[in-house]
Amino acid sequence: MCQLRLNTQHNYLTKVVCDGRLVYDKNIVLGENSRVLDSGTGTGIWATELANEVPDSVKIYASDVSNSEFPPTHPPNVHFSLASVTSLPREWSNKFDFVNQRFLFGALLVEEWPVALSEMYRVLKPGGAIQLIEMEPRFPVPETPKTSQIMKVTKEATDGLGLHIYVAENLAELTKGAGFVDIVDETKRLPLGKSWGEIGLQGAVAIGGAYRNTGALLVKNGICSSREAHDRLVDDVLKEWDEYGTHFPCKLVCARKPV
Ligand SMILES: C[S@@+](CC[C@H](N)C(=O)[O-])C[C@H]1O[C@@H](n2cnc3c(N)ncnc32)[C@H](O)[C@@H]1O
Predict the structure, then answer these.
(1) d(Cα 192, Cα 204) in Å, to the nearest integer?
(2) How do residues 102-121 score in pLDDT, each as one tens digit?
């Protein structure tokens, strides 16, 4: 189910954030023998789809702290490995032409973000580029009661863990702080619910599913009384999205390591 949700989320984000492209910046050409990293890859779907678009000689590395979502089969030029975005292998220094990192806003601690950015910088070749995509899980339009409530309880739980779920706002600044240049900072829109048609339904599966997955944490921390109560809240949130055609902001940051 998690694989299905993550792969639905991939199709959705590719469409609504990257205008249907895996690599948003049209100036980036991944030619023969290029090296690409998908950091925090999840199911590896971005990496495996990229393999179909680039020459076979392009080596695509897909890394994550967990291999639980790695696919059973994949193209031969995609290499899966275990690595944290905060401590990529030493031998990867100056290795990659392009690094993609997407949707780790619920995964990294406040103090881990600058480390992750400096690791991406280290493993890029001079002139190499990054693509970062992170949802801003606040400022929904319109802001409706149940959506406000789920944002509030989720923030309370993630604050308790020291996670930086509002990192999207600081993404360009963090990128600059790590030494990147030519920073392009765009705000895209995540449409949610059936009034947006098929894409809004995909968004509800992806983002609503992510909220549903936080249920156990919220109950454990005493923020929600039970899984059933949390599930009911998520159901009400999904109804609001269907009714009001809600959308959330999402940041897309592209940048380069200086030559
Ligand atoms: C929401 S999923 C996104 C997966 C993928 N980037 C995508 O967009 O489909 C977050 C992923 O980050 C991974 N993750 C969490 N902390 C990490 C870390 N410190 N280093 C690498 N991956 C991490 C999780 O295991 C999970 O696969």
Answers:
(1) 5
(2) 999 999 999 999 999 999 99
